[in-house]
Amino acid sequence: MNRMIIKNGFVVKDDAVIKGNIYIKDGMVLREAEDFDADEVIDAEGLYVFDGFVDMHVHLREPGFEYKEDILSGTKAAVKGGFTSVCCMPNTNPVCDNPSVITYIKEKAMAADNCRVYPIGAITKGQKGAEITEMFKLKRAGAVALSDDGLPVLNGNIMRLAMEYAKTADILLICHEEDKEIAADGVVNEGYNATIAGLRGISRVAEEAMIARDILLSSALDARVHIAHISTKGSVELIRQAKRLGVKVTCETCPHYFSANDSLILSFDTNTKVNPPLRTEADRLAIIDGIKDGTIDVVATDHAPHHTNDKFVEYNYAANGISGLETAFALANTYLVKSRAIDYPRLNRLMSVNPKKILGISGGEKERYADFTIVDTEKKYRIDAKKFVSKGKNTPFNGLEVQGSVEYTVVGGKIKYKNDNK
Ligand code: DOR
Ligand code: ZN
Q1: Which helix (H) or strand (E) holds 299?
Q2: CA 321 to ligand 1: nearest atom
Q3: Rounded to whole angstroms, how far apart are CA atoms 290 and 42?
Q4: From the CB of 323, is ligand 1 less than 6 Å away?
Q5: Is residue 376 part of a domain?
């Protein structure tokens, strides 16, 4: 028996913030207050209580790339960042394209005992883009979605087939949109800053052309599709139009696309290298508009931890990716809420309600998991990558002053993270 009360917090609901208490019994939220002796009381006076954040796009790197991250370090970083659930991408070694890798991840996550971990299986075998995986088997083993993330499904006919099968299997497809031919050998966003830096550019059309293709396929087949990490103004516009036309498309963006632009590459810091690349200020503002009007459903981190050996090389050779779990809330709070673009209920939808809905992992209204993220929305501090518990210290935001800290992360009625740095 485990009873907890979260007391006097500003509880963030779907469309309001209400001061009150939350009563938890055996890992579930009680609908009404019960008069009980709690084993544990969290004093949330002055703090905001969100539904546990759900990150539908992380790279935990295990199996195969444990020198970058593993399930234990990655889930520790997740709870430190306020995430009570994460979905991990299949670009591991071996690729998560069969039930045994799914089972392996689930067992490791269970042993780590930090947050809930939902594996994402591959769309194609070995992520080679040639032959679709056995989707029903992957779903039965516990995959919550399918993606070839890290790589696009370049062949349109394979994507068409994948959408048809995924529709029948009722499993979500998450698309990494990048026309490799158009992207060619670019390493940063094509434009003014790329020219100044003398680095090869990636056209925005590389992303937008693939999004357009998948919107058309989704529309033709009446199949659901979720677009990963959108970064351009054109992508927002394509998805806005598609939603208006009733296409079953949802999408996510990442904190770095609304917090930074490609002027950061002028430092030649390889921690600014990410795929898709940081875009222009006009793109950044368009992403925020897309968040404001609901075109963008989800904020996901695309947590992509890398070893310094993969980053401490010339820009052209550096690995793509940003370690994002431990900075996501602060960046969202600073660049979306404190800048007055959105309010806390909207942030709760972007970081918890919507990803759960899209993935179908909500648990239902009656039996709600007691997953909560309790934050101090006012605290100001500088991001310090050295303090990351993730093995990946690769962030372009090191030293940046931000506002908002995660104070407690509660998973299934248990405190999995408490901020002791008062
Ligand atoms: O920057 C990225 N890093 N983008 C991706 O799509 C993959 C990811 C990774 O796995 O490192
Ligand atoms: Zn990706």
Answers
A1: strand 298-299
A2: 1
A3: 36
A4: no
A5: no
Ligand lying nearest the CA atom of residue 149:
2
Q: Is this model's pTM higher than 0.85 or not?
A: yes
A 10 A CB-CB count for 383 gives 18
Question: Is residue 29 in a domain?
Answer: no
CA–CA dist 402, 335 (Å, integer)? 9
Q: Please tell me the distance from the alpha carbon of residue 164 to that of residue 131, in angstroms, as a whole number.
A: 14
Question: Tokens for 269?
Answer: 């810091």
How many whole angstroms from 87 Cα to the centroid of ligand 1? 14
- For residues 37 and 224, what is the distance between their CA atoms, to the nearest angstrom? 46
Q: Is the pLDDT of residue 101 over 80?
A: yes
Q: Report the alpha-carbon distance of residue 251 to residue 297 in Å, rounded.
A: 6
Number of the ligand closest to the Cα of 65: 1
pLDDT in tens, 142-175: 999 999 999 999 999 999 999 999 999 999 999 9
Residues pairing with 175 in the sheet: 227
Instruction: Convert the pLDDT of each residue in 215-247 to its tens digit.
Output: 999 999 999 999 999 999 999 999 999 999 999
What is the pLDDT at residue 363?
59
* 3-state secondary structure (DSSP) of residue 65: coil
Q: What CA–CA distance (Å, rounded) separates 232 from 277?
A: 10
Whether pLDDT at 401 is above 60? yes
Domain that holds residue 355: 63-359
Q: How confident is the model at residue 31 (pLDDT cuts 50, 70, 90)?
A: confident
Does the beta carbon of 176 lie inside 6 Å of ligand 1? yes
Inside any domain, residue 2: no
Evaluate whether 179 touches 208 at the Cβ level (below 8 Å). Answer: no
CATH classification at residue 291 = 3.20.20.140
**Is residue 74 predicted with pLDDT exceeding 70?**
yes
CB 183, CB 206: distance < 8 Å: yes
Shortest-distance atom of ligand 1 to CA 305: 11
pLDDT range class, residue 35, cuts 50, 70, 90: confident
Q: Would residue 395 count as lying in a domain? A: no
